[in-house]
Design goal:
290 residues, Ferritin, elongated
Length: 290
Amino acid sequence: MKEVAKRMCEEELKASIAYSTIADMEKDTKLKEMLKKISEDEKRHYEFWKKVYGSDCKVKINRTLIKLLRKIFGIYFTIKLLERGEEDAIFAYTKMMEIIEDPELKKELGKIIDDERRHEKFLSEKLKDMKAKYVGYIALGLADAVVEITGVHAGFLGATDNPIMAGLAGIIVGFSASLSMGGAAYVQAKHDPDVRPPVSAAVTLISYLFSVIMLALPYFLLKSVVLAFATSLIIAMIIMGIFIFYSSVIQDKDFWKEYLETLALLFLTALGSYAFGYALESILRIKVPI
């Protein structure tokens, strides 16, 4: 009980400071007040757990990092990241209601559970972020580009020893595909009232092109096509890792499950493309030298 109280004391204090930091950055007056209210709720929860623990708890929290996350990824992602595990906490609190015998403490804990459920409702219903609305379109650009362009590079790995040729192939294919994907995103967004088709198309196209350029870059900097491919593959894994972490927070999904599935698809595509490129080179004898 004492260990749980200490951990909850620390978590609630961190949450209070984090919400206060985000509230200070918010320009929307109504949203600012709501965030401040949540910060006050979390501080009250901290005071409760401090009383149960029997001593104060100290925490270190990086306000600068929170502000940076808010600016780059938006308020929705930042708060979702801070509130990860909230459902588990509510479950734990409910279980503790059965353990605590003091009627006053039990009553206060009941209020905390109500507060946490209200915070969850605020997050899911009231707090909307434009950046979160376009997550699916960013995914469309990044995921498709990483898998497709890695496949193109793997195919050329079996057909040429010239890294410039492989890099150019990725850029040419990627540029054409980005236009196609942008158009597809525009058509798809016309059926979604929550997003604007031109923005959806632009987000998809830009994220696709970004991936294409990053994946092709090693081929213009390194002389070995094998080393360039290995470097490009690492970049692909990093890009997908960052985005899947973002989307897993937004969509409450298991990061490792999503990431490992994506890596499996990536490697299978690369292997299949390499085998096809190698087969063509063996049959047609068209291997391009350095």
